[in-house]
Design brief:
- It is built from eleven helices and five strands.
- By secondary structure, it is α/β, with parallel strands linked by helices.
- The chain has two domains: 134 residues, Response regulator (Rossmann fold); 72 residues, Orthogonal Bundle (Arc Repressor Mutant, subunit A), CATH 1.10.10.
- Strands 2-1-3-4-5 form a five-stranded parallel beta sheet, with helices on both faces.
- Strand 1, helix 1 and strand 2 form a beta-alpha-beta unit.
- Helix 9 crosses helix 10.
- The longest helix is centred in the C-terminal third of the chain and has 15 residues.
- The N and C termini lie far apart (36 Å).
- 42% of the residues are buried.
- Keywords: DNA-binding, Phosphoprotein, Transcription, Transcription regulation.
């Protein structure tokens, strides 16, 4: 299966490097390039790629706002690019529905694996920097609405355990080992949790778990 990618990056040299890496990788197709946020949204809606690789700091429309529009339209999964692992813009992007983020100083293999991960519907929660990021902006003392609390209360005991693990930044494999169940079963639980809580992706589930102070 070919993964169709839209690259949104305002720096021409960086954009060219990203495109070169992806075009050299089997199973990837770069379907478009955008130099600003408005163009990224327009092309995402027009081309319907599998993944938008989205820079957060762009002219005309920032990456956070562009991410929100792309995700709201159901046009693609969004993987955010940032210069700093605690860039405040990333907080908003994840809240807007981005599936995760990568640092710009990443290795080519990490970029490729990150896009594959997001394309199959998983969040970028494995790296330690992601765990720090989630912990930095999702605190237990943040208010959680009664509807969200009621939805979480409606989860099964096992689903609440899985949600707590997601909030801790564990991968499906790590959750399976922690809770002593098959990885395929873990994936099923995560999918059901997202559906029951009406969340777009795994990252938002992790944020909610952190907001509620769920622990493992």
């Amino acid at each position: 299966m070919t993964i169709r990618v839209l690259v949104a990056e305002d720096q021409a040299a960086v954009r060219a490097a990203l495109v070169m890496i992806l075009r050299a990788e089997p199973g990837f197709e770069v379907v478009g390039q955008a130099a600003d946020g408005e163009e990224a949204v327009r092309l995402a809606l027009e081309l319907r790629p599998d993944v938008v690789l989205m820079d957060v700091q762009m002219p005309r429309l920032d990456g956070v706002s562009a991410t929100r529009q792309v995700v709201a339209a159901g046009a693609a999964q969004v993987l955010v690019l940032t210069t700093f692992d605690l860039d405040e813009y990333v907080y908003g992007a994840l809240r807007a529905g981005a599936a995760g983020f990568l640092l710009k100083d990443l290795e080519a293999d990490t970029l490729v694996e990150g896009i594959r991960t997001v394309a199959r519907g998983d969040g970028m929660l494995a790296p330690s920097v992601t765990r720090r990021l989630i912990g930095a902006f999702a605190r237990p003392e943040r208010p959680v609405g009664p509807e969200a609390r009621a939805a979480v209360a409606g989860l099964t005991g096992r689903e609440r355990e899985v949600l707590a693990c997601v909030g801790a930044g564990l991968s499906n494999g790590e959750i399976a080992a922690r809770l002593e169940m098959a990885e395929a079963t873990t994936k099923t639980h995560v999918s059901r949790i997202l559906a029951k809580l009406r969340l777009r992706n795994r990252v938002q589930a992790a944020i909610l778990a952190q907001d509620l102070g769920l622990t493992i």
